[in-house]
Design brief:
single chain, 164 residues, alpha/beta, Rossmann fold, 5-stranded parallel β-sheet, 6 helices, 19% strand, globular, binds 4'-phosphopantetheine
């Protein structure tokens, strides 16, 4: 049978426990998962694509079927090029749904060969977002409950205004 490849796209600015949980679960469902650092035209990232990829590699190093890549283009084109059968996204609340629903429809219109699969967040991650992490870090708060220990220092170094 053909290998079932999924793409897990996002800004990941930075990656959080919420993202990591979705990545773990996607890796259980599919043979191979590419976590794709992508451009969200509505956001200005704090970390470069390279930095975001490094952080994701660091926190997913124990998941053998996950790879990390970056894209400066259309997700639908990438999905088609790689032959992936699914786009995996996490859903936290109804507020995520409208945007994600629109994206899923656009991606389907651009390329009909893959499905968007939504994984519902664990309740303990419902409040969690990269924006929350950035805000807490910028005021010197403890982000160790939001992101893996191996990237805490890196995030604080960049964002903690009280450390300067
Ligand atoms: O983590 P985010 O910011 O919710 O992820 C959104 C992202 C980056 C997956 C989305 O903006 C995206 O797919 N960007 C790539 C460009 C693209 O294909 N856009 C959709 C058509 S408008």
């Amino acid at each position: 049978m053909n290998e079932r490849l999924a793409i897990c796209p996002g800004s990941f600015d930075p990656v959080t426990f919420g993202h990591l949980d979705i990545m773990h679960r996607a890796a259980e469902l599919f043979d191979r998962v590419i976590v794709l650092v992508s451009v969200n035209a509505e956001k200005t990232p704090c970390f470069t694509a390279e930095e975001r990829m490094e952080m994701i590699r660091e926190v997913t190093r124990d998941i053998p079927n996950i790879e990390v890549a970056a894209l400066d283009g259309l997700l639908a084109d990438y999905v088609k090029k790689t032959g992936a059968c699914a786009i995996v996204k996490g859903l936290r609340a109804m507020t995520d749904f409208e945007y994600e629903f629109q994206m899923a429809l656009i991606n389907k219109k651009l390329y009909d060969g893959a499905e968007t699969v939504f994984l519902v967040t664990r309740s303990e991650n419902m409040y969690l977002s990269s924006s929350v992490v950035k805000q807490v870090a910028s005021f010197g708060g403890d982000i160790s409950g939001f992101v893996p220990a191996s990237i805490v220092e890196r995030i604080n170094k960049r964002l903690n205004k009280t450390e300067r």
